[in-house]
Design a protein that fits this description.
The structure is a single chain. By secondary structure, this protein is an alpha/beta fold. The chain folds into two domains: about 10-95, Translation factors (Elongation Factor Tu (Ef-tu), domain 3, Beta Barrel), CATH 2.40.30; about 100-260, 3-Layer(aba) Sandwich (Rossmann fold), CATH 3.40.50. The protein is about 20% helix and about 35% strand. Strand 12 (about 195-200), helix 5 and strand 13 form a beta-alpha-beta unit. The radius of gyration is 18 Å and the shape is globular. Keywords: 2Fe-2S, Iron, Iron-sulfur, Metal-binding. One of its GO terms (molecular function) is oxidoreductase activity. Its cofactor is [2Fe-2S] cluster.
Amino acid sequence: MTTNLHNPVQPQPCSILSVKHESEHEWTFRVESGARPQHGQFMQLSIPKIGEAPISVSAQGEGWLEFTIRSVGKVTDVIFTKERGDTLFLRGPYGKGWPVEQFRGKHMVVITGGTGLAPVRSLLRMFAGNPGYVEDVRLICGFKNEGGIVFHSELEAWKDCFHVTYALDADTKEGWRTGFVTEFVKEIPFNSFGGSYAVVVVGPPPMMKFTGLELLKCGAEAEKIWMSFERKMSCAVGKCGHCRIDETYVCLDGPVFPYTVARDLVD
């Protein structure tokens, strides 16, 4: 009798289908894979004898996944040497994604900082491709400078289906505003939503902290805000404790958290 047991931590070799340079430091790798992650889940990408890194899925389609990666360490530096036809090792998906069913029919507010756009990109693509799934989308995206902008073509296309505010921290760019994303929260008409809304926030920890506080100040309810945490996951199945904050395992309980939990996750 033959038993086919799936090992949840066994990496699988996957071929790179394409590499797109989004910016100087962020590249998008399209990888052949039959996995079907939920929006907001992550995979573990690995290079034998080098290591592995948790990366959110930034887009997916039939037979492929995309990962938008910033070169910031040993593993990602080696991944950046890979080309089309080379092999990456994947395992997953892991973690809890965005509560997509809870978003159905609601006014959506999505606020991102820098490459924090990547973990919500697949969600935004789903909203854009399924008109009527949500009432509408208000998207606020901030980047440090023009050189850090990613997903140029999609940012342009989303102008046609979302209410968008694109901003650079201090630089100027035609059609863009200047300032931190927190400065534009006050322009969100929460009073007109009739209580039927949800807010998604992703970015560096300080950005999420102050955006959360500004949202509360502007009338958003804490129970309707969601955030995604970037964390160095090791085993990704809650065994090693590497991503643990107090009693919370980010790899299992997150990386997506309601703000009522996220605001207390401090190392």
